[in-house]
Amino acid sequence: MPYWSSQQHHGRVANGGQHPPLGCPIREGTRWRKGRPGQLPGRDGIIRSMRVADEIAGEAAPDHGPDTNVDKAIKRLLDGQLYGVLCTQGQGQPYGALVAYAMTPDLDSAVFATQKGTRKYRLLSACDQVALVIDNRSAFPGQLMDVEAVTATGRAHKMATGPEFERWSRLLTDRHPHLDTFVRSVSCSLFRIDMVRYFHVTRFQEVRQWVPKSCG
User: Fold this and answer.
1) Three-state SS across the chain?
2) CA distance 146 to 136
3) The pTM is what?
4) pLDDT tens digit string along 25-64?
5) Residue (of 196, 195, 199) closest to 65 by Cα position
6) 165 with 186: CB under 8 angstroms?
7) Per the CB 3.0–4.6 Å rule, which of 87, 95, 108, 210 could disulfide with 70?
């Protein structure tokens, strides 16, 4: 079966009008050609492929700026998922961990629980700047262009025992009843994330941002 590789060609799709397979990204200034099985693209083609991959990952994607309706899309996605990846950092290295979360209705804040003594707990204690990444990939197997993702950035705060702890723990356990015993254990710490900005990504490169009213 032939594969497809890219060559620079002034924005035209070459090869007798044939297009790459469905789902293969096409960028301005790129043409696609068939190759023999086992044939690898040259260095320039690899570099261009890496740039395309960066765009797909959202790293080099265009930011379409504020959108008045994006908050509804973000809320719909967050309400439909139960878990996200909490991104922390320490000693110059990033770290990701799966967490069960709950959001406030206005999306100003999120809450999650973690056990004391974990790496996640130590990193949060050292640096409060975090990101929470949530997506709906499980709903679209084999349909990657339909997947949505949200990256929410903010600051994490450990909740002290008292009325506020009770209020936030109730928000979390109402959504995740199985966590009730864990949240009330002495080994558990509850963290609230005050959100600063949301990035909503669709089709792997269409990025919209939204700032909660509390930060606007």
Assistant:
1) CCEEEEEECCCCCCCCCCCCCCCCCCCCCEEEEEECCCCCCCHHHHHHHHHHHHHHCCCCCCEEEECCCHHHHHHHHHHCCCEEEEEEEECCEEEEEEEECEECCCCCEEEEEEECCCHHHHHHHHCCEEEEEEECHHHCCCCHHHCEEEEEEEEEEECCCCHHHHHHHHHHHHHCHHHHHHHCCCCEEEEEEEEEEEEEEECCCEEEEECCCCCC
2) 9
3) 0.68
4) 434 333 434 444 444 444 444 334 444 444 444 444 444 4
5) 199
6) no
7) 210
Residue 216: pLDDT band with limits 50, 70, 90? low
The number of residues in the chain equals 216
What are the residues facing 25 on neighbouring strands? none
What is the DSSP pairing of strand 188-202 with strand 93-100?
unpaired
Q: Which amino acid is at 143?
A: Q
What the block records as the tokens of 180 is 């009730």
Domain ranges of the chain: 3-56, 64-210
Fold of 64-210: Pnp Oxidase; Chain A (2.30.110)
